[in-house]
Inverse folding.
């Protein structure tokens, strides 16, 4: 089992920044990749960004490229999502997830956090 706990969400004005954190614990040695997803009201959960612990490869959704940065701290088993130039359309519950390899599909990830709300006002 892997436990994931997100933090760092909140309310921010358009153009502002937030940094989300996701701390992993438990049997993390099988979790080669960490991903961030988001879900807005009435919409499906969508991929935001992911990172591979080995080598640090990253992948981003087109909608966040150039604005969001995913990074990881192996020693702390923590992954971060730095979000800059936030827009109202970024408003959603953000979830981190743990999986065996870097991917954009929700089906790849076995373990999920409880989510943290990000609200961007215009």
């Amino acid at each position: 089992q892997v436990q994931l706990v997100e933090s760092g969400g909140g309310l921010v004005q358009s153009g502002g920044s937030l940094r989300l954190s996701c701390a992993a614990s438990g049997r993390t040695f099988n979790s080669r990749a960490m991903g961030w997803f988001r879900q807005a009201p009435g919409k499906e959960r969508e991929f935001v960004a992911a990172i591979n612990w080995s080598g640090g490869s990253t992948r981003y959704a087109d909608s966040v490229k150039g604005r969001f940065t995913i990074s990881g701290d192996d020693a702390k088993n923590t992954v971060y999502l730095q979000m800059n130039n936030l827009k109202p359309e970024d408003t959603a519950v953000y979830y981190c997830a743990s999986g065996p390899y870097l991917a954009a599909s929700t089906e790849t990830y076995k373990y999920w956090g409880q989510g943290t709300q990000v609200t961007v006002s215009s």
About this structure: DSSP finds no helices and eleven strands in the chain. The radius of gyration is 13 Å. The first strand starts at residue 2 and ends at 7.
